[in-house]
Amino acid sequence: MDYDPNNPFHRKALAVDIKATLLGLGLMPEERPGTRELVFSRASSRLTRTQLRVYTSIVDDEVRDLGSDSIKVCVTFDRTDGGTRGVLREARVFRTGQIEEIPGRLVNRVQGAIKELKALNPCTRCGSPVLVAKTGKPYCADACWNHQGS
Q: Which of 4, 102, 122, 127 has the fewest Cβ atoms nearer than 10 Å?
């Protein structure tokens, strides 16, 4: 059955499918101040303060009705200065087509993000992810070389 964003039953059914899919992948709901939508996350076991996050577009037990809205899969890093930095992101999961196919596309994006996350190296000084600058040079995502006492 094709997903209809104007049908509240479709929005609720898709929300249930998305939640079940993410829980099955080991992601847990997370409170994000300033964010109304349900966010799922899973911490990296190798990289400090690094999480896989999924912004689901679920608000109040149903996905939003906007057709241009999408589900976003990304990896973020919580800096020691309190900010959050995006480390990588996958292509958006658009809520179009068959209702049953949307969670499958979400699984593919999450698995792709996990694969990319596993390929990141930890900083030898602080354990944060090592990213690559536009110049091609690797650098610590937390800029630990700037911290006092490190």
A: 4
CA-wise closest residue to 89 among 125, 54, 122, 58: 54
Which ranges of 1-150 does DSSP label H, i.e. alpha helix?
8-24, 101-119
E strands of 4-142, at which residues? Answer: 28-30, 39-43, 50-55, 58-59, 62-63, 70-78, 84-89, 93-94, 121-122, 129-132, 138-140
Q: Which residues of 96-118 are buried (b: 16+ CB within 10 A; e: fewer)?
A: eeeeeebbebbeebbeebbeebe
- Distance from the first to the final alpha carbon of the chain: 56
The model's pLDDT over 125-149, given as tens digits with 9 standing for 90+, comes to: 888 999 999 999 999 999 887 655 5
Choice among 1-5, 18-22, 37-41, 103-107 with the minimum mean pLDDT: 1-5
Q: Round to whole Å and give the CA distance between 100 and 23.
A: 17
